[in-house]
UniProtKB/TrEMBL annotation:
Lineage: superkingdom: Bacteria
Basic and acidic residues biased stretches: 1-10
Region Disordered, residue ranges: 1-31, 768-794
This protein's name: PBP domain-containing protein
Residue ranges with Low complexity bias: 775-785
Keywords for this protein: Membrane, Transmembrane, Transmembrane helix
TM helices/strands, residue ranges: 846-868
Length: 876
């Protein structure tokens, strides 16, 4: 279905080893399992993603300092007992975190490698590379090393990375002694066959060798596939079968750490109680160096678990926070609804809050913030609303707003270098970096508009009529002169293909995050000119279905940027012969949420349909395999907190001053310092790219967003208001505002609140609990404690900030040195929080039918287009 140029790397990365056993009699049942495998894998992947926000974590963990100190360096010189035959004897690998782990990413950086060679189409797994994976059990003979039968390895199915193979030996006498136990004798036709079984933490054994209990003889059980089983497949495994080093022997990669929620076979983090103390079950991280040949072969074609290779494995123990709720049974449950931006903070705070005296269990249901606000304003039993914008109402806003978090929206990326090997003008130093990841990229509002409007050719289904895109529209962003003008010259040497760098993976549904992105784009004149169908300086034009010029938009309705969603407005559709239709939704599916997108980025999963399989019931598109390190290329829209958790690279965005800023703590704090009123009587502020103070802040990250807790102190049930006030007080207290990984602390990707915001939150909590205070006019007021950045109140505000400074310092929140800059702010309007379709929204045309079709196709295949329907899930 897809462009062959865009599929070659992914297909090559999942090619099965040619030395694996051929199909034999008795494999008929295996075909059925393979037919069901993608469905099960898709469902498992979906469930895994929903578990990511809570991560299975809620108690234990380490502080930020402890997390940093748990970084470990492992070396071949320290661990390899056969250093004289080691493929990479000078290898030294730094692991960023080894304690207090959850479902997250950890960073591996190494030196002492050798220039790597990528896997070849001819069946060679490559040369001088690393494999990275996890195991759960200790070696019975050496507790300082993992047991290879407990390793999640082989699921990727690539050459040199399977658990089994016919050996390059003529008889059993040549098989290494350590492998004999796992080897079946050969025959006249076949040499000996070795298969390392997988033993899950619950004791289940997956083994393709059958042992006769009477004679001890061993035969091959072709019905069992040790590389794709009920515990892991190519869709769920976290192993990295190939990651290379540059000419200098250095390299880096982010590795996905899985808990028992994502991999029950490994069971990492399962609660283990000893002497009344509960901890998470530990696992092993293994870094396996592979050279140029091993296991009796002249190159790398066989398993890294075979003895000749396994003896050189480097490993380190990983300690996990225990998986589970961690809250006392029987506690009252209080619901919180709205912003996903606060989800990881709430997940961290939850176990600390609920274990306090008279504590409550707070369940976060992520949903459209505008809906949560409307409910909070009118319903006495409404959940506490989490929002970044104020309620849009024609009358008086009855809500009280307490700032509880400061984070932002981020653009994640996983793009590996692929310089054009045939271009003789490309410097050798750039060619030497082939298959290594880019560690940053610059984006402007216009470039983001191009991605979100599906204006690059590869974002449109292959085979569709693209006549409405001009001849100057490139296939993806990396080929766009607009992109190359603001990025490092090395990008010009790349020859990258793929639909996942022709757009940006976005979440389905409405959100303040989407609203902030469109506001960022609409603040830039170049971006607005492009969306109005004016060609950019290089001649590229917007996909007309996203044109803000009604005369050009085929729907005859101007595309509106006053919105809080990411519509796939182009009704393009391709109907391959004897296959289901492909439209924009099935070609470039929505992700479930922002956190899921960070996870997809970490795994190199660009989504999109794979090959059509007419043999399933019903027939369906499969799922494109994940792009393995070295061949990754995708962009996604996520949160700063999720990006930090999964350790994915994020883009630097051009801010109003013309500088480029990434979502760091410093840049998000700089943005907070120049936020301006955005509604609710100045009780809610936002970063307004058009304000004069924002234009003067070169360090500010433009998609920084505050999160407010909001409730109606006059209508909400008093017991609920008291519980909500308790949560707010905890959220701005010392523990919750201290950066760290322990339960109750502030996770990475969040910024400690400015002192004045903490003061506002505490005053708002009092109003939530006790009701509005009478104003000087005798009327009730719910604005007490508001931080109002106006000239008239500047002195008062600064005094309040000073009085709160010591408190904020104790909470780990340094007082802002530029709070007074807010007094010069130009007012920011609070636009409508659109709910249903408005007249300004473009008519989707065939899109109305496209979405149901894509949903049905996705549900039918599960692995084909997962997570199409946005589901509500809780964080406890």
């Amino acid at each position: 279905m897809s462009d062959p140029r865009e599929r070659s790397d992914a297909e090559a990365s999942t090619t099965r080893s040619r030395t694996r056993r051929p199909r034999r009699a008795g494999q008929s049942g295996r075909g059925v399992r393979r037919a069901l495998g993608p469905l099960a894998a898709g469902l498992v992947a979906g469930v895994s993603i929903f578990a990511l926000v809570s991560g299975g974590v809620v108690s234990g963990g380490q502080s930020a300092t402890a997390a940093t100190s748990s970084a470990v360096t492992i070396t071949a010189k320290q661990q390899d007992p056969q250093l004289d035959t080691a493929p990479l004897p000078d290898l030294s690998v730094s692991v960023s975190q080894t304690r207090g782990l959850v479902a997250q990413g950890i960073r591996l950086d190494w030196t002492g490698g050798k220039k790597s060679t990528a896997p070849s189409a001819g069946g060679n797994g490559g040369e001088n590379f690393l494999q990275v994976f996890m195991c759960w059990g200790d070696d019975p003979q050496n507790a300082q090393r993992p047991d290879r039968t407990t390793c999640q390895y082989g699921g990727a199915g690539s050459v040199g990375a399977t658990r089994d193979a016919y050996r390059n030996y003529s008889s059993m006498d040549e098989v290494p002694a350590a492998d004999v136990e796992f080897t079946a004798p050969g025959s006249i036709i076949y040499p000996p066959y070795t298969s390392i079984p997988f033993i899950a933490r619950d004791g289940t054994r997956v083994d393709s060798i059958t042992r006769d209990p009477k004679t001890g003889g061993k035969t091959i059980n072709s019905a069992v596939d040790v590389n794709a089983n009920q515990f892991f497949t190519s869709y769920t495994t976290n192993e990295i079968p190939w990651v290379g080093s540059g000419d200098d022997g250095k390299g880096s990669v982010t590795f996905e750490v899985q808990t028992a929620v994502q991999s029950n076979g490994l069971g990492c983090g399962n609660p283990v109680t000893t002497s009344g103390a509960t901890v998470g079950a530990s696992c092993w991280l293994v870094v396996l160096p592979r050279g140029t040949s091993d296991n009796g072969s002249t190159n790398i074609t066989q398993s890294g678990l075979f003895a000749d290779s396994w003896q050189h494995a480097l490993s380190v123990k990983l300690d996990f926070a225990p998986v589970g709720a961690g809250c006392p049974i029987g506690q009252a449950e209080r619901q919180v609804a709205g912003s996903e931006l606060a989800a990881l903070a709430v997940a961290s705070w939850q176990p600390a809050v609920c274990n306090q005296k008279n504590g409550s269990v707070y369940s976060l249901i992520t949903s459209a913030e505008s809906d949560a606000l409307l409910s909070a304003a009118k319903n006495a039993q409404a959940p506490l609303a989490l929002t970044s914008y104020a309620l849009t109402t024609e009358g008086k806003d009855p809500l009280t707003y307490a700032p509880v978090a400061l984070s932002g929206v981020a653009i994640s990326l996983a793009i590996d270098r692929l310089p054009n090997p045939n271009d003789k003008t490309v410097p050798q130093e750039w060619k030497a970096k082939a298959r290594t990841p880019f560690r940053g990229v610059n984006l402007t509002p216009r470039l983001l508009a191009k991605l979100l409007s599906y204006s690059y050719r590869s974002s449109i289904p292959t085979g569709a009529d693209q006549g409405y895109l001009t001849g100057t529209n490139e296939y993806n962003i990396t080929r766009d002169e607009d992109f190359l003008a603001v990025n490092d010259p090395e990008w010009r040497a790349q020859d990258l293909q793929g639909a996942a760098i022709a757009d940006v993976i976005v979440p389905q549904g409405r959100s303040d995050a989407a609203r902030a992105v469109w506001k960022y784009i609409s603040s830039d004149q170049d971006a607005m000119d492009f969306l109005a169908s004016k060609p950019d300086p290089w001649g590229m034009v917007v996909n007309p279905w996203y044109s803000t010029n009604a005369d050009i938009n085929p729907s005859k309705v101007a595309f509106s940027l006053d919105r809080d969603d990411f519509p796939k407005a182009d009704p393009v559709e391709v109907v391959p012969k004897n296959q289901a239709p492909i439209n924009l939704v099935t070609w470039r599916p929505y992700a479930n949420d922002l956190s899921a997108i960070a996870y997809l980025t970490l795994r190199g999963d660009g989504q999109g349909p794979g090959q059509w399989d007419p043999n399933t019931v019903p027939p369906k598109y499969g799922k494109n395999p994940r792009m393995l390190p070295g061949s990754q290329r995708l962009l996604g829209l996520t949160s700063a907190a999720a990006a930090a958790r999964f350790q994915v690279v994020t883009a630097s965005l051009r801010n109003p001053s013309g500088g480029f800023a990434a979502p760091t703590s410093a840049s998000m704090r700089a943005a907070a310092d120049v936020m301006t009123p955005a509604g609710a009587g100045d009780r809610v502020v936002a970063f307004d790219p058009k304000s004069s103070v924002a234009s003067g802040s070169r360090d500010a990250y433009p998609l920084t967003m505050p999160v407010y807790a909001a409730t109606n102190p006059t209508a909400t049930d008093p017991s609920l208001r008291a519980a909500y006030a308790d949560l707010v007080r905890f959220a701005v207290g010392t523990q919750a505002q201290t950066p760290g990984t322990a339960a109750g602390e502030l996770p990475d990707g969040y910024v400690a609140l400015p002192a004045a915001w903490i003061e506002q939150a505490r005053d708002a909590a009092d109003v939530m609990q006790n009701g509005p205070r009478p104003s000087s006019t005798g009327e009730s007021s719910s604005t007490s404690g508001a931080y109002i950045p106006s000239q008239q109140t500047a002195v008062t505000t600064r005094a309040a900030s000073s009085s709160a400074a010591s408190t904020a310092a104790a909470a780990g929140a340094a007082p802002s040195s530029t709070d007074s800059a807010m007094t010069a702010a130009s007012g920011a309007s609070s636009g409508a929080l659109a709910g249903a379709k408005t007249p300004e929204d473009p008519d989707g045309g065939a899109l109305g039918a496209a979405l149901p079709l894509s949903v049905l196709a996705g549900l039918a295949s599960a692995a084909g287009v997962p997570l199409i329907t946005r589901l509500r899930r809780r964080v406890t």
